[in-house]
Amino acid sequence: MTRFSDKCVVVTGAAGGFGEAIARRFAAEGAAVVVADLDLAGAQTVAGSLPEAIAVQIDVADAGQNAALVQAALDSYKKIDVYCANAGVPHRAAPLINMEVEDFDRMFEINVRSVFLAAKYAIPHMPSGSSLISTASIAGKRPRPGLTPYNASKGAVITLTRGLATEVAPDVRVNCVCPVSSPTGFDLNATGQAQLSNEMNAAVVAGIPMGRRASAEDVANAYAFLASEEAGFLTGVCLDIDGGRSIQ
Ligand SMILES: NC(=O)c1ccc[n+]([C@@H]2O[C@H](COP(=O)([O-])OP(=O)(O)OC[C@H]3O[C@@H](n4cnc5c(N)ncnc54)[C@H](O)[C@@H]3O)[C@@H](O)[C@H]2O)c1
After folding, report:
1. Residue 16 C-alpha to ligand 1 middle, in angstroms?
2. How far is the CA of 41 from the centre of ligand 1 (A)?
3. Per-residue pLDDT tens for 55-82?
């Protein structure tokens, strides 16, 4: 598959989880990939295993580092065709009114400001026909208790996606994906355990009509579709990758 030959794809949060799968998917379809993450060693490992890739360290909440990431992509590959603003973090599950103010602010710094900064620095360099895709969450549309600041931050990503899409059309398409729960590093950050307990896993799966959590490949598939020519008329789409979780 070579749908993305001669394309430069930037992926944040690409040292693991969804971002790594997204990077691998675009690389498998011919793209040169900029593997960006706070975890430089992890990013280097992923980039080193791809046919054409560089690794860049970034804290996506930092304006200067976003500008530097864009410059690194341009220095290596001259343009950016697809920008995947995927990096994001949850907080430990807790009722909203028990949250620390700093933890609330951190959700918006990492999960929302990152998408604004990606757009601000990357879009002026993106050619006509390119696309910006972000990772929101189904919890941004259908929140459940315990992760309210996180869910609100993903709701903001959805609104930002739809507003920005109207501003930069028809040159750049702006979409996001809304995955359901998936067994990535996210579990550790949200629960303190590398894997959900059997009881917790069963409770999560019980709410998903397709009977399983999302895989990183489910998310990567959606990214590849949204970036492809087949999705050339789609902008402002917030695509549920949730096995039907949000129906009920
Ligand atoms: N896994 C889920 O259940 C789930 C569901 C819906 C949405 N999401 C979203 O998917 C995205 C990817 O998460 P994941 O599940 O792959 O988690 P993950 O923890 O496996 O991967 C996140 C990656 O982002 C990197 N990262 C964290 N903070 C960063 C920062 N400030 N700057 C740059 N990189 C940073 C981490 O080093 C890590 O490599 C996030 O936006 C997350 O909110 C996850």
Report:
1. 8
2. 16
3. 999 999 999 999 999 999 999 999 999 9
